[in-house]
Write a structure and sequence with these properties.
Keywords: Ligase. By secondary structure, the protein is of the alpha/beta class. It contains 16 helices and 27 strands. Helix 1 packs antiparallel against helix 2, helix 2 packs across helix 6 and helix 11 crosses helix 12. The longest helix has 17 residues. The radius of gyration is 23 Å and the shape is globular.
Length: 522
C-alpha cells in the first residue's frame, strides 16, 4: 500500500525507510565486521519502534541511550524518531551522579545501554522513578529486572504510523556543561533536516561515501557534520567506539574511508602518531572539524598531505552548522571558520541589542535559520534570554569578518578579559602561543587585579622534552601582540582540564588562577 508523502516524510524518523527504497542493498552501518544495509536498518528501526510502543513509549516521551558509538545508537535514534518520541544521547564520560541528573532532567521513560556503560549505570543508582524500563544491548549486561534489546526486537511487531511534523522535538542534546549544570537543547526534526540540507549544499556527499563516526554521538559534531548527511545520501557510516589515532589512521587506508568529522585534539593526535607519514590518506575527500579552534600547524599538517580539511563553526543550538570553510579558500584561510551555510542568517549584536551588520570589528554573533533550535528543555526563562527579537540566537561567540566574507571566531563573550579598560581575547593569545614549537597547548584566563581590574593568567603545556621559561614565552608574545595583551602570570603545567569533547574547562582554570595568583605576580 502506498501513500502520498507528507511533512512527516521529511523528518528524521523517515530517513532510513525512505533511503532503503532507493538503494536497499547498499551498506548503511558497518562495525566490527558486521554490515547492516539500508533495507536491514529500515526493518530493524521499524521493529524497534514497535518494541518501544509495546513498552509504553508515546509521541513526545524521552528515550535515552548510554554507551559508546555503535550501530545500536543509530537504531535507537531512528526508532525513537519513528515513534515520534525524543532521543536523549548521554555522555558516557560523565559520573554516575551526572547521568542520574540528566535522566531526571529529561524525564526519560526508557534507557538503552551498551555493556561498556554497566559500571556507570550502577554508579547512577538509584535511577529516577520516571525511568520505567532499562534495555541492555548485550544479554550479559541485562540485570534481573532489565530487558534484552534483541529479544524486544524479536517480539515486536511493526510500529504504528505516527505523524511527525518538522516542528516536533526529535533530540535533546546536553550542552558541555563548562559552566554550572548542563542544559538540553531541544532540536526538532526540522532543525536536523535543515542542517543536513545546509551540509549537502556546502559539501559533495555521495552515495558511495564511506564515513567514519569517531566523534561521540552525544555531541553535535559526531551527529550532524558528516554522519547524518552521509546516511541521508545513502552512503555508509562506521561508528568507532573508542578513539585511537593509530587505529583510525589504519582504518582509513584499509577501508578506503572518504570522510569523517572530528574535534581538533583528535586531528592533532593523528598527525603526531608514528604511522602518520606512512598512512595512505588518498581516499579522503573531506575531513571536517569543529568544537574548538585548531592550531595552524595542525591544519597545515593535514593540508600538506593533500587532505581537504574544512573547519565548521557551529553549536549544539544550531544543530550544529553556522559557517564552514570552502575547498577553494582553505589554503589561504587555514584556521578560519569560513562562510555562512546556505540557509543561515548571521548578524552582529548591536549596542542597542538589535541585529547589526558583521564587520572587521569583533562583535557577538547572532544567528537565525530553520536549523536553529527554539529553546532549552524545561527552561523557558533561559530560552527567552538566549534570543534577540524572538528569532536571533545569541551565540555568545565574538566574531570578526574579513573583507572577503570569511569569518574568524575571536573568542567567547564570557571569556573576554577587560584589563585597564582594554578588551583582551584569550583565544588570540593562545593562537600566538601555539606558534612556538615548544608549546603543546595553552589556555589564558582572567584573574582579579588591583591595578588593572583583570589580568591574564596563562597555563602552558610544553611538548615532551621541550624547555621554555616564562621570559622567553612572554618575549615571543610581545613580538606579535600589544603589551596590554601579554599575560601577567605564566604557569607551566603538565595538562589542561578538558571536558569529554576536548574543550578546556575554563571555570576550573579561573578558580585555580585566582587561588594561585590573587596575592601577587607569578
Amino acid at each position: 500500500m502506498t501513500r502520498s508523502p507528507g511533512p512527516a516524510d521529511f523528518g528524521l524518523g523517515s530517513w532510513p525507510a525512505r533511503r532503503a527504497r532507493i538503494s536497499p542493498g547498499r551498506p548503511a552501518l558497518v562495525r566490527d565486521g558486521r554490515t547492516l544495509t539500508h533495507a536491514g536498518l529500515a526493518d530493524r528501526v521499524d521493529r524497534l519502534a514497535g518494541a518501544l510502543t509495546r513498552l509504553g513509549v508515546r509521541p513526545g516521551d524521552r528515550v535515552a541511550y548510554l554507551g559508546v558509538n555503535d550501530i545500536s545508537v543509530f537504531e535507537t535514534l531512528f526508532a525513537t524518531a519513528r515513534r515520534g518520541a525524543v532521543f536523549v544521547p548521554l555522555n558516557y564520560r560523565l559520573s554516575g551522579a551526572e547521568i542520574r541528573y540528566m535522566l531526571e532532567d529529561s524525564g526519560a521513560s526508557v534507557l538503552v545501554h551498551s555493556p561498556d556503560a554497566d559500571d556507570l549505570l550502577a554508579a547512577a543508582a538509584p535511577l529516577p522513578e520516571t525511568l520505567r524500563h532499562v534495555v541492555a544491548t548485550n544479554p550479559a549486561s541485562c540485570p534481573a529486572d532489565g530487558l534484552d534489546f534483541e529479544a524486544e526486537l524479536a517480539a515486536a511487531g511493526p510500529a504504528p504510523e505516527t505523524a511527525v511534523r518538522l516542528e516536533d522535538p526529535c533530540l535533546l542534546l546536553y550542552t558541555s556543561g563548562t559552566t554550572g549544570r548542563p542544559k538540553a537543547a531541544v532540536l526538532t526534526h526540522g532543525n536536523l533536516t535543515w542542517n543536513t540540507v545546509n551540509q549537502l549544499a556546502h559539501l559533495d556527499v555521495l552515495s558511495t561515501d564511506k564515513a567514519l563516526c569517531i566523534a561521540p554521538l552525544f555531541h553535535c559534531v559526531g551527529l550532524g557534520q558528516i554522519t547524518l548527511p552521509t546516511l541521508f545520501k545513502g552512503g555508509s557510516v562506521e561508528p568507532v567506539a573508542k578513539f585511537d589515532p593509530g587505529a583510525i589512521l589504519g582504518r582509513i587506508g584499509e577501508a578506503g574511508i572518504t570522510s569523517f568529522s572530528a574535534v581538533p585534539t583528535m586531528l592533532e593526535m593523528m598527525c603526531r602518531h608514528e604511522s602518520w607519514d606512512d598512512t595512505d590518506l588518498s581516499s579522503l575527500t573531506c575531513v571536517l572539524y569543529g568544537g574548538s579552534p585548531v592550531a595552524e600547524r595542525v591544519a597545515r599538517a593535514w593540508l600538506d598531505r593533500g587532505v581537504k580539511l574544512l573547519q565548521g563553526y557551529g553549536m549544539t543550538e544550531a544543530a550544529p552548522g553556522v559557517t564552514m570553510a570552502t575547498h577553494d579558500g582553505t589554503l589561504d584561510h587555514p584556521v578560519a571558520a569560513g562562510v555562512p551555510h546556505f540557509f543561515t542568517d548571521v548578524a552582529a549584536l548591536g549596542p542597542d541589542l538589535a541585529p547589526a551588520p558583521l564587520g572587521a570589528e569583533p562583535a557577538e554573533l547572532l544567528v537565525r535559520g530553520p536549523h536553529v533550535f527554539g529553546g532549552y528543555w524545561d527552561r523557558p526563562e533561559e530560552s527567552a534570554a538566549s534570543f534577540v527579537e524572538d528569532e536571533w540566537f545569541r551565540t555568545g561567540d565574538v566574531v570578526r569578518v574579513e573583507e572577503d566574507g570569511w569569518a574568524h571566531v575571536v573568542d567567547r563573550v564570557k571569556d573576554l578579559i577587560i584589563s585597564g579598560g582594554e578588551n583582551v581575547y584569550p583565544a588570540e593569545i593562545e593562537a600566538v602561543a601555539a606558534r612556538l614549537d615548544e608549546v603543546d597547548s595553552c589556555a589564558v584566563v582572567g584573574v582579579p587585579d588591583e591595578r588593572w581590574g583583570e589580568a591574564g593568567a596563562a597555563f602552558v603545556v610544553l611538548r615532551p622534552g621541550a624547555r621554555l621559561d616564562a621570559a622567553a614565552f612572554r618575549a615571543h608574545l610581545e613580538r606579535h601582540l600589544a603589551r596590554y595583551k601579554i599575560p601577567k602570570h605564566v604557569q607551566f603545567t603538565e595538562t589542561l582540564p578538558r571536558n569529554a569533547t576536548g574543550k578546556i574547562r575554563r571555570v576550573e582554570l579561573r578558580a585555580l588562577a585566582t587561588a594561585t595568583f590573587s596575592n601577587g605576580p607569578a
